[in-house]
Amino acid sequence: MLKCADLTERFQHADTRLTKVEALAEGAVKPPGIVEAMPAHCVVSGAMEERTSPVDGKRYAISFEMRLPTAWNGRFFYQANGGLDGFVTPAYGDTLGGGPRSNALQRGFAVISSDAGHALERNVPGIGGGTFGIDPQARLNYGYQAVAKLTPMAHALIARYYGRPADTSYLVGTSNGGRHGFVAAARDTGRYDGIAVVTPGWRLPRAALAQVWGAQQFAKAAPIDAKTGRPDLKASISAADMALVSARVLAHCDALDGLVDGIVADTIACQRQFDIQRDVPTCAAAAPNDGCLSTAQKTALAAVFAGPTLRDGRAVYAPLAWDAGLRGTDWRTWKLEHSVGPRDAVAMAYVFSTPPASPTVVSGQGTTLQDFALGLDVERGIGIVDAVAAPYTESAMQFMTPPDAQRMASFVARGAKLLVAHGVADPVFSALDSVNWYEAFRAHHGASTERTTRLYLVPGMNHSRGGIATDQFDLLTPLVAWVERGEAPQALIATARGPGSNLPNPELPANWSAQRTRLLCPFPQVARYRGQGDGELAANFHCVAP
């Protein structure tokens, strides 16, 4: 094993430059929510493929950070970023779920994180950091190539530092990081032994288009802002309105699992059981009152949950799932703010459109991101995410999505393992899209599906974490046990993050136990109450076929 400082002179890899190497003592860093001391480790920062774009004239590189623990367990962990990437998060190895109590580095993994080939320009007025999409190569790196390029470099750095290669390799991520996981499995990038993802945005361009279209539906129910002359989306559906819908969902679906407990465990049955037009009272007046929604609000919500369709009847994206967690703050934030701001709108304008929009079009000088989002026709949107035009040699659907996702042929043939978890009240990437993927995967692979993958739905959880949910769970431990010892995972234990937990969830109902536990069952099984015992404990539930 080398000394940390020796890596600067003694590690070389094609088109790679180490920019900083630093040894940190035990306890030198303290990630939020992690109580136990972080181990002594070597931090390596670097850059691959430094270049100047011939298209936009900007400087690009695949920047990365690796953390190499002194007490290494022989494992490699790729920490995939969310959002538009564009930032190097500390390579601690997030184990996913809400408020994890430990991380991969603490457990002895060597961890890498990266910006996927671009740095977000957060100081660009009005348009955020999506303009990297003007550069064709930056698009490809973001989509799939950065992972493919960084993985062999990381393995080489591990072998040089420790004097031997890693025994096993894992890739873990949520949201766009979950998409990275699906893409790595489908392309068999890096030949990972195990991949764990939460909230996988595996059809991200279409999901972004559905988000923008959803904002258009809310705009129809929104008052006009007197200052801007534009729809005030935040006023279209209030937090109280969503709490009302959540309560009506619970009234019709809570007891389906055998216990009225504020959780809708039988997601699929609830979609058949609940109808917003029938089950939520309509206000007699045009303006909504307590205990009812206006006709315009119900129409908007019904459309958003059903999702957009094209003129020929084809669905653009999967419908959203009715669930009690839709009253979570995260739900309204994504639907009424991010959809027309520097997330979905900017991604559609620059990263997923071919050709990309001009920065002057949605810069806030005349036409804003909200104008772009509210004016984007869904038929045109499908065209631009499927389009190819020089110098953009791959469409957004080609470089962003996993090819042949229902097969993942090489990954499956090698016996690699994939764990997927998805919050049912995710406002961005539909949990039903993950269900559709899993059912198509199972239709192709049959009984062998059980040897390769598991899907876990997390009732009440919003985007990646939070919401009205038991959202603290661990995918890494069962994944390692499956890969290395052949112990196939069954039900997982999920815990609520009430007062006194390492990272409390302020949205949990007051009548929940602070440490409520629930079973997360492998889909299509559903957690049902056994009929006796403390309803706050997972031990009194079991997984049954629907």
Structure write-up:
- By secondary structure, the protein is an alpha/beta fold.
- A hairpin with a 6-residue loop joins β2 (41-52) and β3.
- α4 packs antiparallel against α8 (295-306).
- The chain is built from 16 helices and 13 strands.
- The longest helix has 27 residues, at 136-162.
- The chain is 30% helix and 15% strand.
- The model has no long low-confidence stretch (mean pLDDT 95).
- Among the domains are: 1-166, no CATH class; 206-394, no CATH class.
- The protein has helices at 7-10, 136-162, 176-187, 204-219, 239-253, 267-273, 276-279, 295-306, 329-336, 344-351, 369-375, 378-386, 396-400, 409-413, 431-445, 476-485; strands spanning 16-24, 41-52, 59-69, 75-80, 110-114, 168-174, 194-198, 417-423, 453-458, 492-495, 517-520, 526-529, 541-544.
- The strands form three sheets. It has a nine-stranded mixed beta sheet, sandwiched between helices. The protein has a two-stranded antiparallel sheet with strand order 10-11.
Series of H and E elements: HEEEEEHEHEHHHHHHHHHHHEHEHEEEE
Largest sheet: 9 strands, mixed
Provide the structure class: alpha/beta
* Total helical elements: 16
Strand percentage lies at 15-25%
| Alpha carbon gyration radius | 23 Å
- Taking strands numbered 1, 2, ... along the chain, how are they ordered across the largest sheet? 1-2-3-5-4-6-7-8-9
